[in-house]
Request: fold
Amino acid sequence: MGRKIARTLARFAALLCIAIFLLALGIRLDQYLLRFRAERLLSDIRSLELRKSTYEDARRLEDRWLDESKEAVCRASSCDLQISVGNMGTRHLNFLLNHLIVRAVYHGLGGRVAGAGAFLRVRDNLLWGKGIGLAIETLSTESDGRNVEYDLEGSIGTDDHFTWVSARHPEYQIGGPTACTSCRAGWVNFTPFADPQDVLRLTDLNFACLTRWRHCTEQADILPTAWKEMRAEVAQAAHNGRAPCTPAMIRVLSRQTHRVDLVKVIKLELEGAVPLMTVRRLSRVPFQLENWWPEFPLVVDASDNIHLGDRLLLFGDGCQTVPATVENMNAAQLGASEGWISPAPPLDLPFAPAKPKIDVR
Reply:
């Protein structure tokens, strides 16, 4: 009788081990399948070049990744595509969240909720935007021994509205959010006019994070190339201080024409504790615009050589004020012309931008 019970328990244990092995194998295969699909999606996105690839190029990706039930309507004049791929955890996320024991087993066998997504933006038969991102559920142990859970995210893509511009590379930015309590995220944003070699170099998501037994935990793991470059730049900026505003930076900022003003210095007060200047707007701004004043005060930077009667370009962010020299005005006009593809509110600048040349670099 005892032997029969022992054999039964042994068979049960063997079946349980086999079931656990098959479940773990299935989870691992699911992770590798997601990695394979995500890497193929990355390859497709990298194969398209901004302002060179056409609507037909985007359609090939549409046919490859989206089925006939898609909701997006694409035309050569305007097309916005969203493509997403996920693993078993993503498809059954609500079930896992409502069954914590199952979720614990899923994590214990190496599973993690993960997904990748990409977008394409076509205007007037040309590719004006593209991007790809990756998000992975991450479990980590802090230095004090606490176990923490968060989303590790990395994304790379076009952005038409920069709030700040790097002097080293005005056409792209590298950074991450500072107020996210449940994620560690990094991003690379670039304009449609960025150098294709920079775009190709920085579009470097580490999809090995999907299949590693040891979790990726930092932005440097998921965005290796971009994060290495950003760390080097932060160290150099701390050593060199603030860089001057260049025509290349003005060009990028001026694509958002509603954030650019042309002003004239009509009064200087340099003797007080805070040196001030009063400027008069020369820009063509509609009177119905809120918070618009013909004249207003600005603080004078000690490093600026400001004189009465000077004309200045004023930016909402980034460069703040720069002299309205011929070179700087030409850069602003070029930037305004390039912003034509995504129209801004009524123009502030004292000129109307022309339709951009597609071959501008």
